[in-house]
Amino acid sequence: MTLAVKSRLIAAIAFPLLLLHGTPSRAATPDPQQMGHVAISGTLEITQLDHISIQSVGKGPAVFLIPGLASPRAVWDGVVADLAKTHRVYLVEVHGFAGGDIKGNDKAGLLDGIAADLNGFIIANKIKNPAIAGHSMGGLLAMMMGARYPQSTGSVLVIDSLPFFSLLFGPTATVEGAKPFAEQARARTLATPVPTEPVTTDPGGIWSNTPAGRIKVANWSAKADPRVSAQAVYEVMTTDLRPELAKVTAKPFTVLYATGAGPQAKQLWELAYAGSPATLVPIADSWHFIMLDQPAAFEQALNAFLGPK
Questions:
Q1: Using only C-alpha atoms, what is the Rg of the chain?
Q2: CA distance linking residue 288 with residue 291, whole number of Å
Q3: 56 and 87 Cβ atoms separated by less than 8 Å
Q4: Are the C-beta atoms of 99 and 219 separated by less than 8 Å?
Q5: 3-state DSSP assignment of residue 96
C-alpha cells in the first residue's frame, strides 16, 4: 500500500476530529440537530449511563446503533425512521461527542467503559439477542461486545472499521509500536484550535465523497469535546481485537467497508479479518461515511443484515 493511500485511509477512518473540534462551553446545551431528531413515530426515551446515553424508539426486535469517533447519533438519521417501524432502535451517543457534560470520558478505559455500559443496559432491560451495529469506533465496540459479552450480543454489523486501526501503518503493526503514534495523535487532538463558526464550505478530505457529506461530518466533529476525542483516538489506535474475533459467535457477523481507496481497501480488510468469522461486504463508490455516500446501498445492506421483517 502506498504512503498516499495510507494517509488517505487514516484521515478517512479516524481523524476528522484532528481538523475540527468543538468546545464544551459552546455546546453545553445540546444542539437538537445532533440528537437524532427525525420524523419518527412513537415516543423517544433517553437513558443516561456512565459513558453514554441511549435514545430508544420503535417496537420489535432490538437493534443498537453506535456512531463513530467524534460523531453524534444523528449519523443514523437516514435509516432510523424506517427502522423504528419494525424494530426497537437504541441510538447510542458517547458523552462529549455532541457537546455537553463529558462525565469523565477523558479518562483511560473509555472503550471498556462503553462496552460495559451497553452490556449492563441490555441485561437490566432483559433485551434478548440484540443486533449491534457500529460505524468506525462504533464498529470496534460492536466487535468488543460480540467477543466479550456474547450473552448480550445477538448479531454484529461493523461499518468501515478495522479490528486494529493501526494496521494502516503496516501489516506488522503492534500495539506497543502504535503507542508513540497514538500519543502524538492524542496530543495533536488536544492542541487543535477550536472553530468558532459552523463549517459552510467544503473542508476537503475523504470522509465522504461529496462536499455536502464532508461539510456535515466537519460540523459533527466540531461539536465533539476534544478531551473525549483525544482519549478515544488513543484507545482506538492501541486496541487490537484480532486475537478475540474467534470468540464472536454472534450470527451474522458482517463487515461493510468502503471502496474509495480502490483495490487496496479489499487487501487491507481481507488481511485484517483473515481467519475470523466475519463476512466482508464492499460498498462501491463510498468513503468512510458509507451511510452518507451510498444511503440506498447502506440501507439495503442493513436490512439484509437484520433479516426478514
A1: 18
A2: 9
A3: no
A4: no
A5: strand
Bond from prior residue into 163 cis (ω within 30 degrees of 0): no
Rounded distance between C-alpha atoms, residue 193 and residue 216, angstroms: 19
**b/e 148-160 (16+ beta carbons within 10 angstroms → b):** bbeebbbbbbbbb
- pLDDT of res. 308: 82
User: Greatest CA separation found in the chain?
Assistant: 49
Closest C-alpha to 271, from 138, 141, 172: 172
pLDDT band, residue 196 (cuts 50/70/90): confident
**The three cell numbers locating residue 126:** 432483559
Q: Indicate if the pLDDT at residue 37 is higher than 80.
A: no
**Nearest alpha carbon to residue 132 among 39, 251, 259, 274:** 251
User: Residue 18: what pLDDT?
Assistant: 38
Q: Measuring CA to CA, how many Å separate 53 from each of 45, 115, 233?
A: 10, 12, 20
For the chain, percent of residues with pLDDT exceeding 90: 78
At 194 the pLDDT is 73
Where is 214: in which H helix or E strand? helix 211-223
Give the residue from 147, 136, 117 showing the smallest Cα distance to 241: 147
Q: How confident is the model at residue 130 (pLDDT cuts 50, 70, 90)?
A: very high
